[in-house]
């Protein structure tokens, strides 16, 4: 059972890499993998409000 979970973990990792690419930071890669973050295109959001102009 444990080997199956490890296998599924790495399959998920490779699918994410193929779909989104890999960052240059191993910590970020691990965070994305463990939390299952997904990219959501801007056009999928509704009622987006503009708050301010400028940079960061």
TrEMBL record:
It comes from the Eukaryota. Keywords: Signal. Residues 1-23 form the signal peptide. This is Uncharacterized protein.
């Amino acid at each position: 059972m444990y080997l199956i979970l490890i296998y599924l973990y790495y399959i998920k990792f490779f699918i994410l890499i193929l779909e989104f690419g890999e960052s240059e930071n191993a910590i970020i890669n691990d965070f994305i993998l463990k939390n299952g973050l997904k990219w959501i295109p801007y056009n999928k959001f509704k009622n987006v409000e503009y708050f301010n102009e400028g940079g960061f």
